[in-house]
Amino acid sequence: MSPAPDLGTGAMLAETLRVIAALAGVILAAVIALRYVLPKFMARGESQPGLIRMVARYPLEPKKTLYLVEAGGRTLLLGASERDIHFLASLDGAEAGTEAAARAVKEALHA
Question: H-type helices in 9-87, by residue range?
Answer without folding.
Answer: 9-32, 38-43
